[in-house]
Amino acid sequence: MQKNNTVVKAINKNVRSSPRKLALVLNFIKGKKAELALRDLEFTRKRIAKDVSKTIKSAISNAENNHQFDIDNLFVKEAYVGKSIVMKRFRPRAKGRASPIKKPFSRITILLQEKKKEKETK
Q1: H or E element: which one contains 61?
Q2: The dihedral of CA 52, 34, 41, 83: what is its sign?
Q3: Cα 49 to Cα 23: distance, rounded to the nearest angstrom
Q4: In whole angstroms, how far apart are CA 17 and each of 57, 84, 86, 98?
Q5: H helix or E strand, kind and range, residue 22
Q6: Is 70 exceeded by the pLDDT of residue 121?
Q7: Looking at residue 6, what is its pLDDT?
Q8: Is 114 exposed, middle or buried (0-12, 13-18, 19+ CB in 10 A)?
Q9: Domains of the chain, with CATH numbers?
Q10: How far is residue 101's CA from residue 1's CA, in Å, rounded to a whole number?
């Protein structure tokens, strides 16, 4: 098994945010080095960036412990979000009616890959 072709995955299930809000943050970190993505998320104004950075840290530790990758060469190959459960609540309204409130959950998936070192030719 070649370790350069292996992709490391981390999934964070049931994150309490809508997929639409999460997609903005995930598109921001696609293609960046893992270390740079973590630093950018630290200074992002979105609340959900903490959960995304937690998932990236999990993927980095998976790469280091399970596949013996070099942390410095890892980059975010893919970062995407999917829908999970939706909590349904109701808010009382006028004249005895009720209106629904949907509280969506999301599932974050982050794929890291090790960048291949180019051999120097003399």
Answers
A1: helix 49-67
A2: negative
A3: 11
A4: 19, 10, 10, 23
A5: helix 19-29
A6: no
A7: 82
A8: buried
A9: 7-114 (3.90.470.10)
A10: 49
